[in-house]
# Entry
Amino acid sequence: MTAFINIILTFTILFSGIASQLDFILYPEKYNAVSIDISSIPSPIEEAKFDGFVQLTDVRMHYMIFGNGEKPLILIHGNSGSVKSLMEVAKYLANYYTVYLPESRCHGQSSDPGVISYELMAKDLKEFIEQLGLKKPLIMGHSDGGINAIQFAADYPDIPGAIISCGANSHPKAFKLYFPLGVTVRNIFKPDKLNDMMLILPDFTPEYLEKITCPSYIVSGQFDIMWISDTVYLHENIKGSDMAIIKGADHSSYMSRNGKQACALAKAWFDKVGM
# Structure
């Protein structure tokens, strides 16, 4: 009986994935399916303007700065990432903005206070912005960084000028089955609080997402680790938000693995909303 149930479950998941992709292919306008044009993006600015630390209440946070643009833009890396994860993105965006590249608590060279959650990381980001005196910063996050951007915009709606959330999920149940399964297996052999967080958080309800008031762009890849329907859910519950599904992209192909695409994506949308 157990084997039969597992077979049914497997076929159900496969069918759901195929059905989702067919709907995307047949009705791309429904998902605002886009390709990214990188033809007008200039060469990256290679040299960092700053590389150091700032002391927050609970965390000694490492960060870098690139560029001298009028508007501040904060890039937030994903789970287990560091400044290296989005450094290429920062170097391209530095042509247009002053780009801040912090490392979240328990990541990279930032200190580890022993606990982590998206709520705590949002608090850290608030303190980071206050310490540096940034006014209405633009925020772009990838993966866990995309979740952080949403959490921050909901918890502190008066602070961000606009957010771009790339590859975020609203709840662990929104992942395609292979991803949490892989995280769970890794956690068995090497327990990690970063893995624990992904398996239990976030839990973005419609009521919580309604708190977001800044311009918001919800983005994911066609072949991302969460279902496309979850990107739609986030978009539909963040009032006035825009959405895009990147054609042919996976979770990281247009972000941490291609800074030029990430730059083009961000610049086009920030220009569109007057940021």
